[in-house]
Amino acid sequence: MKSYLSLVRISAKVRKKQNQMTILCIIISVLLVTTIFSVADMGIRAENIYMQDRHGSWHIKLENISQDTVGEIGRRSDITTVGWSEVFNYDADQSYYVNEKKAALYGTDETYLTSLANGIEEGAYPQSDDEVVLSSNAKFALNVQLGDRVTLYTPAGDVDFIVSGFGSDDKEYFQGQTYLVAVYMTQPAFAEIMGKNNIAINPVCYVQFRNAREASKGILEIQEQYHLPENSISENTAVMGIAGQSSNTSVNGIYKLAAMLFVFVLLAGVLMISGSMNSNVAQRTKIFGMLRCIGASRQQIIRFVRLEALNWCKTAVPIGLISGTVISWGVCAWLHYGVGDEFAATPVFAVSPIGIICGAVVGVMTVLLAAQSPARRAAKVSPIAAVSGNMMSAAVSHHASKLRLGNVERTLGVHHAIASKRNWILMTGSFSLSIILLLCLPVGLDFAHELVPSLQSWNADIALNGYSNALILEQDLVDKIEAISGVENIWATSYMKHIPATSSNEGIDHVNLISYSDSLLDIFQDSMVQGDIGAVYGKSNQVMTISNKDNPLKVGDTIQIAGKEVEITCSVSSGVWPGEYSVICSQETFEWLTGEQNYCLIGIQLNDKTADTAMQQINSMIGNDVIFQDARKQNQSDAKTYLAAQVVLYSFLAVIATITIFNIINSISMSVTARTKQYGAMRAVGMDGKQLTRMIAAEAFTYAVSGLIVGCGIGIPINHFLHERLLTRYFGTPWSLPIVLIAIIIFFDFISVLIAVRAPSKRICKMPITETINEL
Asked: Is residue 546 in a domain?
């Protein structure tokens, strides 16, 4: 033996069975990190493909800039591609039509549409000025195919084009529309049409760098070198954000959230492994004392414990990496085949270098961090303790315990739990971490749910809308559509913005007046924040508003509109229209205040089985002055994305909860093993199996109760803080004590204890008394 460290391998062979629990803890920690980072890596790859497909691969956009300046910029070594594009009539507010549908006109070069925007889905870019590319919805809206002729109607005259392709640089905008078609033409053809209609052109330059990191640096350099104002240069937030290079604060907040989750996983792993190693060291006090007796220094003992921990990593880390990779394949397969849509490009059987490296590095780092405290504890073992045979890790008591908890077994159980302050703190920390996460993460999911309109109960499959929210949809149209087979629910609303008004609330000189049909008012009863919605129905001077930080109107305010006074008697957390200065009333009250009878928006929810037939019937009932939008595909995509987010977050919670349960099982098992001789002596003097079980249960319940107190004590204020900052501030939803969630936590807490107690108590009760007394 060259050094004391040579004993590490011998110890590993001798204590192979005892070390299995600690090795399993390390495997779980490595497995978790590998899985999380591998899935995140695959998810980012898929999202990058999805974002480039939907928003293009360009990095920055330059406006109000000359072609000479762009020529100089294009010669930079870090820039790969430069393209041009310009759009007119994007909102369809001008009288430009292709055949019978409204047209948004684009003048682009081939580089932009084919390379930077990934816009060609079928066919090819126009090879002459009399060819155009139409957005893909034109196939249904105009019933045209490649090679067909279409006519562009403009105020200055009509122009015929041949369809050379289908596609778009903004697939999300034109998808599902039948009222607006994008027309992509060459730049000379676009300039000619704009000139005939006396419209000035101002093309926009799109720039692609070699990568997002260079684009982030290039933005500042180009802006400074060419003295460009801030509003003339902007980034492709989707592409830059997924690469972690966006200047957008909301995008960067996602990465901060990911970093927080990583810290929680690391902390949970440290607590679990540290608890296991503490128990392991406590059982080997005699070994460390004997090493001190034969000359080992404290520093050598510390190195011994650290090297032993690293020796465990030789087995645990590879197993954790392989297991984590296999699990990540399963998750990616579910995202690819089960969720689909924006996750359809998720690689399934790819190996993530980031996941492997992070799993290995974080696994070793977690073990080293967890080994610090046990190593110092082992180094403090006195040689006298080894010689005298006093191997107890706890301090010697010179007086009887002051705990009075009824039966002696309960008192002893609690005493065992709190005797080692370090172990008690670790177990309490492990429980409280799970509880804090369980109290906080659901608030984030509720916030995400509120942010996505397609997840709301009022969300429509089909939307009919007047251009610029014109009030052109007659009330009898609602009755006709409602009678169509396959229509499950229908609602209607009117909207008039910036109506002059006076209010009892100072500083308000206008409001946005909104009407809801009775069916829509029924839906929003579940979104009430304050007051009673019942008085809003029918012709009434009672109205409601939306409660959020941007709306100064409050319940109790009176408002004068067109010489008529109304009172806000209730508020809701969200609405169909923006919440600022919103006054929501019934259709009858809207007609009383404005004299207008028509709606500007009708929302229709369809039965899935007959949706296509109903959609065709609805489409045949409206004219060209009505925007018809099919939102079913987008709604399904949003629902799947939200489901994926729910599964990921709740799986994360389940993992943390599993670690907690595993930690307490491990700790109780180690504690029972360390006190085998004590339990044997207790059984020898008359203590039966039930009393031993109660003693072990009392120890476990002490950990659980202390964790529950600390976890709820910290988690509830954080839950309140997050709710106030995210939900109350933006949606007006008042905070209430999450009683159901706390009940679930308490149930989980005590179920964990029952699981943890069962195996150790069963094992100690089955051991013969003579064996437990002689156990070393």
From this structure: yes
For residue range 28-38, what is the model confidence (pLDDT) as tens digits? 878 888 888 88
SS3 of 234-271: EECHHHHHHCCCCCCHHHHHHHHHHHHHHHHHHHHHHH
State the pTM of this model: 0.68
Q: Are residues 466 and 579 in the same domain?
A: yes
- The Cα 205–Cα 489 span in angstroms is 45
Asked if the structure places residue 403 within a domain, the reply is no
Q: Is the dihedral of CA 742, 748, 754, 760 positive or negative?
A: negative
Q: Where are the alpha helices (DSSP H) in 420-511?
A: 421-451, 475-482
- Mark whether 619 and 471 lie in a shared domain: yes
Query: Same domain for 147 and 52?
Result: no
Residues paired with residue 732 on neighbouring β-strands, in sequence order: none
> For residue range 116-139, what is the model confidence (pLDDT) as tens digits?
888 899 999 999 999 999 999 898
Range of the domain at 160: 60-235
Backbone torsions φ then ψ of 100, nearest 5 degrees: -105, 5
- Which of 188, 207, 235 is at the close of a domain? 235
Radius of gyration of the chain (CA): 34
Torsion 402-408-412-418 (CA) sign: negative
Answer whether residue 180 is part of any domain.
Answer: yes
CA-nearest of 668, 660, 666 to 745 is 660
**Residue 414 CB neighbours (<10 A):** 19
The backbone torsions φ and ψ at residue 304, rounded to the nearest 5 degrees and listed phi first, read -60, -50
Q: Which two tokens stand for residue 594?
A: 């404005």
Answer yes or no: do 171 and 195 share one domain. Answer: yes
Q: What DSSP line would sit under 728-764, residue for residue?
A: IHHH-PPP---HHHHHHHHHHHHHHHHHHHHHHHHHH
Calpha distance 330→335 (Å, rounded): 9
C-alpha to C-alpha distance for 353 and 549, rounded to whole angstroms: 44
DSSP 372-386: HHHHHHHHT--HHHH
Cα angle 606-610-612, degrees, rounded to a multiple of 5:
85
Torsion sign (Cα): 287, 293, 296, 299: positive
Q: Which residue has the tokens 């007086």?
A: 399
3-state secondary structure (DSSP) of residue 507: coil
Provide the 3-class DSSP secondary structure of residue 96: coil
Q: Classify residue 41 by burial, with Cβ atoms within 10 Å: 0-12, 13-18, 19+.
A: buried
> Which residues fall within 8 angstroms of residue 468, CB to CB, at 6 or more apart?
91, 93
d(CA 206, CA 56): 10
Are 554 and 465 in a shared domain? yes
- 397 DSSP assignment: P
Classify residue 243: in a domain, yes or no.
no
- Which of the 8 DSSP states describes residue 22? H
C-beta of residue 473 within 8 angstroms of C-beta of residue 599:
yes
Return all residues near 597 (Cβ < 8 A) that are at least 6 apart: 474, 475, 591
- 283: tokens are 């059982």
Express each pLDDT in 244-281 by its tens digit: 666 655 545 555 666 676 677 677 667 767 666 666 66
Domain edge (last residue) among 183, 209, 235: 235
Residues 82 and 123 occupy one common structural domain: yes
Question: How many Å apart are CA 716 and CA 540, to the nearest integer?
Answer: 42
533 close to 507: Cβ distance less than 8 angstroms: no
DSSP assignments along 458-521, one per residue: T--SEEEEEGGG-S-B-HHHHHHHHTSTTEEEEEEEEEEEEEEEEESSTT--EEEEEEE-HHHH
**Would you place residue 65 in the very low, low, confident or very high pLDDT band (cuts 50, 70, 90)?**
confident
- Whether residues 160 and 214 share a domain: the answer is yes
Is the Cβ–Cβ distance between 440 and 720 less than 8 Å? no
Same domain, 755 and 620: no
Instruction: Tell me how far the alpha carbon of residue 530 is from its chain's centroid.
Output: 29
> Considering only CA atoms, which of 484, 490, 456, 495 is closest in space to residue 602?
490
- DSSP assignments along 280-299, one per residue: HHHTTHHHHHHHHHTT--HH
The total number of structural domains that make up the chain: 4
Which of these, 470, 482, 463, lies nearest to 598 by C-alpha position?
Answer: 470
